Amino acid sequence: MEIPVIYLNRLLAETAKKRATSLHLSVGSAPLWRLNQLLVSLNQEEIVTSDLINQAIVVTLDANESTEFAAKKEMVIVKTFADGLRYRINLFYQRGLPAITFYYLPDLIETSAKLNLPPIVTELASRPNGLLIIAGSHGCGKTTTSASLLEQINQTESKRIITLEQPIEYSFISQKSIVEQRQVGRDTLSLVSGLQYCLNEDVDVVFVGEPKQDLDKVVLYLLELASGNCLVILEMNAQTTINALEKILSNISPGKIEAARHSLADVLIGVAAQKLYPRRSGGLIPAVEILLGNSTVRSLIREGRVNQIENVLQTSRKEGMVHFARAVEDLVRTNEIKSDEPTAAPN
């Protein structure tokens, strides 16, 4: 067996070269790639051992991170390896043994056109204020989409952008805008405290990565920010646009739910939810469901009838709304995907 650090760097370099989205190391199995949403076993490699995983952890984590992992048994971090390759790393235990998954983070932030996002999504991100939600399941590319929208603002508008992430995945270089990236737990004690800071600051755009705790407090602060002169872009783990709205409202306490519904209706710009499909020409392409905050949608939210928004999605194509079923049909019609292609499984 190679020296662990050499072995790990070689696998990570090959992962990037093959454009695999992730590398999975689990004791008792050969390394696995997620390649075009399919798991591919690297049978030419030796079976992963507990010793190899432990040594990989030693060369990957610093002393503080090692202590945290030992205590919590799971963690997510971002690291840069040889040749500047960046990976989001999920460390966890299974069957009492450590395991690691590496998710490749390209250096280049792709444009919305290169990502095949509908132009209306970019247009929504150019609004001066309000709430834009980017939704989807784990591994659907919503973080990449969010980064693309932020970079579009960074390159074309003079704004102060603050991101609140855990961890920071894409690194931005300030262009026309100032981009300040804050990692929850390192640069701010919590997402709630980070949002409180934003409320008292001169900020034009706030991006919030997937909230994991205190969603009830987080939502109320987000709504307050979006009601002022601030564009809020929120990343959410939700399958559909309606699921995203339901998730937000389900975390509000009964005593505050009516006010929250009215606030959400007032500030909602739109929701874009995406799923990835294998593309005929290779790689992946998103099918994007788009819900716009028009007068009908706002009324249904205020009245607590979010479930009826489905009908609006299906009948408002001319306004720019797109139901998932229609988004998939469009990709089939343009020969981008196969008609019988299943929705991409999450990483």
User: Can you tell me the CATH superfamily of the largest domain?
Assistant: P-loop containing nucleotide triphosphate hydrolases
Q: State the helicity in percent bands.
A: 25-40%
Coarse morphology: globular
Query: Which band does the percent of strand residues land in?
Result: 25-35%
Distance between the terminal alpha carbons, to the nearest Å?
28 Å
List low-confidence stretches: 342-347
Q: Structural class of the secondary structure composition? A: alpha/beta
- Mean model confidence by pLDDT: 92
Number of domains: 2
Number of helical segments? Answer: 12
Question: Over all CA atoms, what is the radius of gyration?
Answer: 21 Å
Report the biggest beta sheet as strand number plus sense, adding barrel if it closes.
Answer: 7 strands, mixed
Number of strand segments: 13
CATH-level-2 architecture of the largest domain: 3-Layer(aba) Sandwich
Could you characterize the architecture of this molecule?
A 7-stranded mixed beta sheet has the order 9-8-10-11-7-12-13, sandwiched between helices. The chain has a 6-stranded antiparallel beta sheet with strand order 3-2-1-6-5-4, covered by helices on one side. Helix 7 (215-226) packs across helix 9 (257-267) and helix 9 runs antiparallel to helix 10. Strand 5 and strand 6 form a beta hairpin. 36% of the residues are buried. It has 2 domains: 4-105, Beta-Lactamase, CATH 3.30.450; 119-333, P-loop containing nucleotide triphosphate hydrolases (Rossmann fold). It is globular, with a radius of gyration of 21 Å. The protein has 12 helices and 13 strands. The protein starts with a helix and ends in a 14-residue tail after the last helix. It is of the alpha/beta class. The longest helix is centred in the middle third of the chain and has 15 residues, at 142-156.
